[in-house]
Design goal:
270 residues, alpha+beta, Beta-Lactamase, five-stranded antiparallel sheet, 4 helices, 5 strands, rod-shaped
């Protein structure tokens, strides 16, 4: 009984506990991804607005826009202070600038939604996790599509570290809880074990055996009730023993009184 209670209680706790950790981990991961995407969207909006103004400035000076793309876009590649940031510029579906030729880029980023919204997604490349944002430049440069990929590897790594810490702490807490639960069940089942032992002693004839009464809780009330029952059993057994002794005494006296006339009758019969 104690072992089954321990297993069932521990199993239920572990199921709900690790389910809670999993829910927290998933929620934290979604929040991390959401924050990374919002950061990427903000940086993409800043870059597209700034690039459009730079294009206007170059055209107002009568400069060659196509020949100025490298000098105009190169500073934005280090906007986040990370050299792994990827900046790609399309014009009419054709790449005209890419500061990271080593990173493959899906063709779906070349054509963002036509309603003016931006395409945002998480993707893996060169062993890192990136937030890729694709969107068109403001008018009159809507023929240009800017793809900005920021490195979100540190954020994901931080989430993984937090998740692993939660599960490690959960494992240590589970071990501590298992030991505490076992001690608690031993304490709770100890009165039942005493009752079982005392019952066996009473059944074997030790009617004066009693349970110790400690405290004023339900277990103490149960011990008092058990002791009262044992006293009643002892009293009833005492009465039955006394009645049996009287009956035996009556039979002995009756036999003694009957022996004398029977002896005389036996003599006459001889």
């Amino acid at each position: 009984m104690k072992f089954r209670t321990f297993i069932m209680t521990l199993t239920l706790f572990l199921v709900f506990f690790y389910l809670g950790i999993s829910v927290i981990s998933v929620a934290t991961f979604k929040d991390t991804v959401k924050h990374a995407k919002e950061s990427g969207l903000g940086e993409h909006y800043f870059i597209t607005s700034s690039v459009a103004k730079d294009f206007q400035a170059v055209e107002s000076r009568g400069g060659d826009l196509a020949g100025s793309l490298d000098s105009l876009l190169q500073p934005y590649g280090y906007l986040s202070g990370d050299k792994t940031t990827n900046l790609v510029l399309y014009k009419d579906g054709r790449i005209v600038y890419n500061n990271r030729q080593d990173l493959p880029l899906s063709s779906r980023f070349a054509e963002p939604p036509r309603d003016g919204s931006r395409l945002v997604s998480m993707e893996k490349a060169d062993g890192r996790t990136y937030v890729a944002v694709s969107g068109k430049l403001p008018s009159p440069y809507a023929s240009y599509t800017l793809v900005y990929r920021s490195n979100a590897t540190d954020s994901i790594a931080s989430w993984k570290k937090t998740k692993n810490t939660l599960f490690l702490a959960g494992s240590l807490l589970s071990v501590l809880l298992s030991a505490s639960l076992l001690l608690l069940l031993n304490r709770l089942f100890k009165p039942l074990s005493l009752i079982s032992q005392t019952s066996r002693r009473i059944a074997s004839g030790a009617y004066d055996t009693r349970l110790p009464v400690n405290g004023h809780d339900e277990l103490a009330e149960m011990a008092q009730s058990f002791n009262h029952m044992a006293e009643e059993i002892q009293h009833q057994m005492g009465e039955l023993t006394a009645a049996a002794e009287k009956k035996q005494q009556f039979i002995d006296n009756f036999a003694h009184e009957l022996r004398t006339p029977l002896t005389a009758i036996y003599g006459y019969a001889e």
